[in-house]
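Q: What residues go here?
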């Protein structure tokens, strides 16, 4: 495997290990919330004096639609972890004398260095820079402020720039690594994975709100 292939494999494995736990928690949480919302919707629809045909279809369809990105993200997560299971021999350990700790930033720098002078270098750097910016700590407090900072005007910036160039960056990295054989974790369109992740972030609060409203309606009835 080439130096770039090694660097990309290590970065892909590092990303999978770093986000594997949080993404699983997010998927499980979203599944639980939407399952509760769907159950309450079924109870309301089948109760006497239900919302009618149109209302019933809407109530049952909403949790199902919100579950689409959850399913997509779960499938993409499993594929990524399987593709990177044998990669990433780097060490991420506690700091001890004589032990080299390889961080995510170091792995990103390696990929950027290996991409220098290759086609698609600017796209790769732009995507990495956008995600690095999104990961930077902010003086704003709270999840709401953080989401506003990432998605807001001027920083739609962050997500917008990444999504706008991630396809070109993925194509460039895939070609430089020798195609799907050299980088099997890049076979799936990363734009779909990122869109699914954003959809799950939206599905959790919407599903929770729907469940609360349905519970109140059932209690009032």
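A:
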């Amino acid at each position: 495997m080439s130096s770039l292939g090694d660097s990309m494999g290590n970065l892909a494995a590092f990303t999978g290990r770093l986000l594997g736990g949080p993404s699983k928690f997010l998927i499980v949480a979203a599944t639980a919330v939407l399952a509760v919302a769907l159950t309450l919707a079924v109870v309301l629809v089948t109760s006497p004096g239900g919302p009618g045909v149109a209302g019933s279809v809407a109530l049952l369809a909403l949790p199902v639609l919100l579950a689409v990105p959850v399913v997509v993200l779960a499938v993409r997560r499993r594929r990524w972890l399987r593709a990177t299971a044998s990669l990433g021999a780097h060490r991420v350990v506690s700091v001890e004398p004589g032990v080299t700790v390889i961080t995510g930033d170091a792995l990103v720098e390696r990929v950027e260095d290996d991409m220098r002078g290759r086609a698609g270098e600017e796209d790769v750097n732009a995507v990495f820079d956008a995600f690095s910016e999104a990961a930077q700590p902010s003086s704003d407090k709270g999840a709401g402020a953080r989401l506003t900072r990432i998605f807001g005007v001027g920083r739609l910036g962050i997500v917008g720039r990444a999504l706008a160039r991630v396809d070109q960056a993925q194509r460039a990295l895939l070609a430089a690594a020798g195609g799907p054989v050299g980088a099997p974790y890049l076979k799936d369109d990363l734009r779909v994975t990122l869109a699914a992740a954003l959809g799950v972030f939206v599905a959790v609060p919407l599903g929770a709100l729907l469940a609360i409203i349905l519970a109140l309606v059932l209690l009032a009835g």
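A: Context that may help when evaluating the design: The chain is about 75% helix and 0% strand. Residues 90-100, 146-156 have pLDDT under 50 and may be disordered.
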